[in-house]
Amino acid sequence: MIQYIMKGGNPLVGDVSIGGAKNAALGILAAAIMTDEPVTIGNLPNVRDTNVMLDAIKGIGGIVERINEHSVRIIGRTINTVSVQYESIRRIRASYYLLGALLGKYKEALVALPGGCNIGTRPIDQHLKGFTALGGVNHIEKGAVAVRANKLRGNHIFLDVISVGATINIMLAAVLAEGRTIIENVAKEPHVVDVANMLNSMGANIKGAGTDVIRINGVERLHGTEYFIIPDQIEAGTFMMAAAVTKGDVMVRNVIPKHLEAISAKLLEMGCEVVEFDDALRVVGKPRMRHTQVKTLPYPGFPTDMQPQMAVALALAEGTSIVTESIFENRFKYVDELSRMGASIKVEGNVAVIDGIRCFNGAHVSAPDLRAGAALVIAGLAADDYTVVDDIEYIQRGYENFDLKLQSLGAMIEQVTDERGVQKFKLRVG
Ligand code: EPZ
């Protein structure tokens, strides 16, 4: 089992550079197979989820050439099946983007029902509603979704819930549908806009991404492109929170500050210093943060993917804070682990009431999912003594070189594989 061992207490200080957005990358990689011409993608984060998506593309016959660690060339001309193998798909939820991409290009797709982080019931009814409106016929057989259409025709679609996945998936299918599609009540997340921009660079005609309504004029075919993915809003937010929690001073570079406004606003409310530059944010932590209230909401609201990291900061803030999770019902699973580090948190339904303490104590904890895992690492960096975080495979789904980036800011953290590694770390660090 791979684990992180860390010794808390060092304020994080220095510069960290943020990689490409994982959740944009997953949509963009799926979009890349929709043309027979080569597509080059840059600023691709080298994390487990994107690598699984690349494997899935190879699994259906697509060509994936690594240009360097963060760039790939994808050729969709050689795809020889529209059936995506269970083994790869089971491991990431966003493989459902291959449904929209294959349906758009070949009018047919069969994809195993998605897995992913265990953060609550995650239906895909809105994705299917969109495909049906475009003329697809869906059915679920043996744990897989099959969608077929004689012809895809544009339509007017109103989403019942704001869904990032459904917005991107319907957009993927609709760009190659005949006529005009209007999707209302769509997600406005930066990665939705990035996937739309990428598709437009392939010749699609999408307008309105980033607003509540997306309008698509179908085109006959898409062409090759070279596209550079936007910075990862959540990786950036995680380092901002790590700076605050460790009372550090970190320049978070290669970000789009506008995408981080909800997070910056909360840190300012809590008394931290946040200084905005063109493509960087400096976060300076304070000896004691103030309590506040946070409710997760679709963009531009406070992101659910930052809720656990924020709760860690609030657990060390003065007074009582309230965190309301309104997107996923199962996103407080880290609370038991954090309580073992001394946090005082009570969860009632989708609300967590947090009474701030002065310091966490180190403990042996497990990462229950990707963002909660990152949050426990941040807590460990602010804790007295040693903390071991198990199940860090979750963290590696979405954070590239998390330990190395934290080390470069002065954190005492290392990836180990067994008890000997833990003991060696303790001997070295003292
Ligand atoms: C995306 O998941 C992200 N994943 C998640 O990031 C993120 O937490 C989430 O958006 C919210 O921002 C990717 O982009 C790959 P949704 P997604 O569809 O698309 C309900 C991370 O940590 N819903 O926006 O699956 C759903 O249950 C991950 O990087 C339906 O009811 O989320 C939820 O309550 C984890 N029917 C809400 O909508 C549907 O058909 C929002 O989900 C679809 C969703």
Written account of the structure:
With 430 residues, the chain is of the alpha/beta class. The chain has 2 domains: 3-18 and 231-429, Alpha-beta prism (UDP-n-acetylglucosamine1-carboxyvinyl-transferase, Chain), CATH 3.65.10; 22-228, Alpha-beta prism (UDP-n-acetylglucosamine1-carboxyvinyl-transferase, Chain), CATH 3.65.10. Helix content is 32%, strand content 26%. The chain contains 15 helices and 26 strands. The chain has a 4-stranded mixed beta sheet, with helices on both faces. Strands 2-15-17-16 form a 4-stranded mixed beta sheet. Helix 10 links the parallel strand 18 and strand 19 (320-324). Helix 1 runs parallel beside helix 7 and helix 5 (125-133) packs parallel to helix 6. The longest helix is centred in the middle third of the chain and has 13 residues, at 233-245. It is globular and about 65 Å long. It starts with a strand and ends with a helix. The model has no long low-confidence stretch (mean pLDDT 95). Bound molecules: ligand EPZ. Ligand EPZ is lined by residues 23, 26, 93-94, 117, 121-127, 161, 163-166, 187, 304-305, 327-328, 370-371, 398. Residues 23, 26, 93-94, 117, 121-127, 161, 163-166, 187, 304-305, 327-328, 370-371, 398 line the site of ligand EPZ.
What's the short story on this structure?
The protein has 430 residues and is an alpha/beta fold. Helix content is 32%, strand content 26%. It has two domains: 3-18 and 231-429, Alpha-beta prism (UDP-n-acetylglucosamine1-carboxyvinyl-transferase, Chain), CATH 3.65.10; 22-228, UDP-n-acetylglucosamine1-carboxyvinyl-transferase, Chain (Alpha-beta prism).
